[in-house]
Amino acid sequence: MAKKAPRKKLPKEVAIINADNCTGCESCLEVCPVDCIVKIEQYPTMGGLQSWCEIDLDRCVGCEVCVHIPQKKTNPYELTVCPWDAIEMVPTEKCHEVVSQIGGPPEYIHEHWDRLVGTAFHLAELKANG
Ligand code: SF4
Ligand code: SF4
């Protein structure tokens, strides 16, 4: 994998998917401009949950495009992307707390703790330290 370049500016908020609500429909994945949403498919030990999506927080730029489609300010209607309301924008300083709670089935989070929660914690710390 190519080495990630350090980011110039940390986003105020990042997107986090509530794995419990996500069906893996890929609608969000198709609209993300930086291609940082990935689908986790049929993880072997996860009972009923067949697939869900997760966001690489190291690359999320907080643009909210996966939550609602940008449109003219004069348009009063919001066009949301996720049919299951599974994506939320979370303050970057708190992203590790939210990822650890809803970012995947508990066993999955536990198994991938460093990559998921560790990455989010590092990002949160960077943001908190300005
Ligand atoms: S907020 Fe923007 S960059 Fe982040 S996952 Fe959503 S669409 Fe991608
Ligand atoms: S649009 Fe919603 S349900 Fe579909 S993959 Fe994205 S988070 Fe999951």
Automatic annotation (TrEMBL):
Pfam families: Fer4. Keywords: Iron, Iron-sulfur, Metal-binding. InterPro entries: 4Fe4S_Fe-S-bd, 4Fe4S_Fe_S_CS. Gene3D superfamilies: 3.30.70.20. The keyword Metal-binding applies. GO terms for molecular function: iron-sulfur cluster binding; metal ion binding. Residues 13-43 form the 4Fe-4S ferredoxin-type domain. This is Electron transport complex protein RnfB. It comes from Blastopirellula marina DSM 3645.
